[in-house]
Amino acid sequence: MISLNETHDVNHTSWVSCANQPDSDFPIQNLPFAVFRVAGESFRCGVAIGNQILDLKAAAAHKPFEGKAADALTACEHENLNPMMELGFEYWSALRLSLSRALRTGSTLESQFKPCLVPMAKAEFALPCQIRDYTDFYSSIYHATAVGSLFRPDNPLLPNYKWVPIGYHGRASSIDVSGQTFHRPAGQTKAPDADQPSYGPCKRLDYELEMGVFIGQGNPMGNRIPLDQTDQHVFGMCLLNDWSARDVQAWEYQPLGPFLAKSFASTISPWIVTLEALAPYRTGYLRPAEDPQPLPYLSSEQNSTLGALDIQLEVLLQTPGMKGSQTPVAQKQCMEKLSQSSFKHSYWTIGQMVAHHASNGCNLQSGDLLGTGTQSGPKPEEAGSLLELTKGGKQPLTLTNGEQRTFLQDGDTVVMRGWCEKEGAARIGFGDVSATILPAKG
Amino acid sequence: MISLNETHDVNHTSWVSCANQPDSDFPIQNLPFAVFRVAGESFRCGVAIGNQILDLKAAAAHKPFEGKAADALTACEHENLNPMMELGFEYWSALRLSLSRALRTGSTLESQFKPCLVPMAKAEFALPCQIRDYTDFYSSIYHATAVGSLFRPDNPLLPNYKWVPIGYHGRASSIDVSGQTFHRPAGQTKAPDADQPSYGPCKRLDYELEMGVFIGQGNPMGNRIPLDQTDQHVFGMCLLNDWSARDVQAWEYQPLGPFLAKSFASTISPWIVTLEALAPYRTGYLRPAEDPQPLPYLSSEQNSTLGALDIQLEVLLQTPGMKGSQTPVAQKQCMEKLSQSSFKHSYWTIGQMVAHHASNGCNLQSGDLLGTGTQSGPKPEEAGSLLELTKGGKQPLTLTNGEQRTFLQDGDTVVMRGWCEKEGAARIGFGDVSATILPAKG
């Protein structure tokens, strides 16, 4: 279990002064991890502070820490975060505490660390770690109901939904970091009135607004992870856009689930926000009283802390029309919000997903990525996909500039943002995840 | 396209004389690859010849080859086969040719290579390569129909089956090599007459008789692999037992497919038999004339060579009762055959599976493992799982010793064997894959 400690103290400020702006995603209470480089140099691990990145390889050269924090910082000298993530919670937490103190206003390490800062604007990002297995859950009951009603009008929410944290294995190889571009996928589809299927470019390309959960410490095969111990296994979270070819999905998904409809690309945000940084945003356990209580292996006395996380999420669209002739800065601002929701609406918590995943003895490994499934809220305008927002493509969205969308068009850029905010706690931001659709290959 | 060449010549014999026995799985025409060690030493790559293993690290020290074969042998000095597999078909083929000549009767390399032989009986095996993504297909129409009739009596074979090589993403972390033992998994199940599900040890534990296909050379994301080029991407094949918890599967699998019912363990045979070694066993393309012809991206002028592979497969069971008080050697012989079939009955070929997998631009990677799905033949006794052999557990099998089985019991060992055999070609064996079920953990 993660407790609040001095790293969460809202009174602390950083000598990296831009981190103290109230709207910064990356104040000293956040300290998320990524892998980055400056053009022409090698990739390395870093921590965000304001609009700067602390180069951990450069910082480690000063041997500034002791004990577990020193070991964790040494592990960050690698080209990705896997070696550090494998060390386990005590090491992550010790490193976070030491970084918090080192970046805090008045720290004696300021003079050593200042030359280790790199402006975020100059950074290129890579995947933060080598992703092992990728599992995608289906944890929003609002999404499951809305999608179920499109695919199975008579039977939208299946009887297992309120008992089983439904998930499926996903494709790891095609996951890339924000900034990804990919060609519109082709695939086999069959129109309802067609005699036979055909193969060609996807006509119903969609995004899915998800969160990603990185496993830090795994479990040996055959062992389970009790729900109360799941916090020790989760390193942190990111934003995840799980692109979906809806027409391919509709034709291929029975009986074994989505396959090529989801395996052409998935995009994550570069920063892993640690579960410890998110601790102030745990909410109570929100399951409706009229719903069945979870089976014992998915229940806990500690529900208050194993509960939901109130992470605000939004999706923005930038069409080629919006990019127009404007300057790069104006372009970046010229996007239209499609929806907004919160991860607190998830029917299953992260802890329940992890405990369920290992409940058959399946060995989770450091670097595994769990998707939460599309996060749609209870209101129609809180839907996390175009499939839902347009009622399966039947009700086009009209954008402010007059353009319409049922599904995504070539050149469209989809941006997702996430952040936590409330009175009495520091804002904890995820940054964003952005990716752009290229035309289908000939 | 793979052509027959001197490595397939049935007249060649080896100076490793046991390889020349007509019933040997590993004659000089086979030359499969594995990763092995002698107890106490480090894992290394090897090639089977008769009942011996050629230690490729030791052989490489002699620098016996030139050109691409030399480069491929150098890549085999690694602790697993990934670096060699990544090199591509021309390198695999050159190495095979050089090894064939070196192990052939009369080779001048005999004196150098003889000290590099290790008796197979002394070897311990590891996974032959680091498995990246694992995908499981569903390529036997007989299996799909039989299982479909149990899960969906009204709708056994779905309309997409004859058009789409159905597959789903599987769990890579829990795949291990022959000799694996694993605890009976626990999971959430719901009896048809129960009000609510419960969590406990699986009661319907089953094997699945599959083949595994290892990708050697991948494709860049966004590119496809034309059907006629799939041979250049497939390094080779192994046997695969894809253990299944049928009661967990029945409750969890809708709408996103199997998840925890399959992720607790999968077992592969240690030897990768190269696609080149299997070339003499290509058969014509067997799709029934009354069935729809595949879409163009799954069709080829070269169907005769891209066709099925006639690989004989059998499943054997050894119960704790059979192990009894006998000697280890007698134990090994005391097994009961449950079924026998051939991979030639597969509705989809390996080439079609690979071309379909990459048809949306999904990047396959060296080390990816594709399961073929359970290989059941047209006759009921050719079924590749107990689910089928016992009609969903309703018709128990009575074994020769009087024991009965619907599903597997603790202590049961399941062994699968595979081989190719016909007039005018050398026998090409896969060896076997064996694994044993331990009781559920408390």
UniProtKB/TrEMBL annotation, chains A, B:
Gene3D superfamilies (alphabetical): Fumarylacetoacetase, N-terminal domain (2.30.30.230), Fumarylacetoacetase-like, C-terminal domain (3.90.850.10)
Binding positions for Mg(2+) per the UniProt entry: 242, 262, 266
GO BP: any one term: L-tyrosine catabolic process
Residues in Fumarylacetoacetase N-terminal domain copies: 29-128
Cofactor(s) demanded: Ca(2+); Mg(2+)
Stored InterPro entries: Fumarylacetoacetase, Fumarylacetoacetase-like_C, Fumarylacetoacetase_C_sf, Fumarylacetoacetase_N, Fumarylacetoacetase_N_sf
Residues binding substrate: 138, 152, 249, 253, 374
The protein's Enzyme Commission number: 3.7.1.2
Active-site residue numbers: 143 (proton acceptor)
SUPFAM superfamilies, per database record: FAH, Fumarylacetoacetate hydrolase, FAH, N-terminal domain
Binding site residues for Ca(2+): 136, 208, 210, 242
Pfam families, sorted: FAA_hydrolase, FAA_hydrolase_N
Entries under PANTHER family matching the protein: FUMARYLACETOACETASE
NCBIfam families: fum_ac_acetase
Protein name per Swiss-Prot or TrEMBL: fumarylacetoacetase
Organism: Endozoicomonas numazuensis
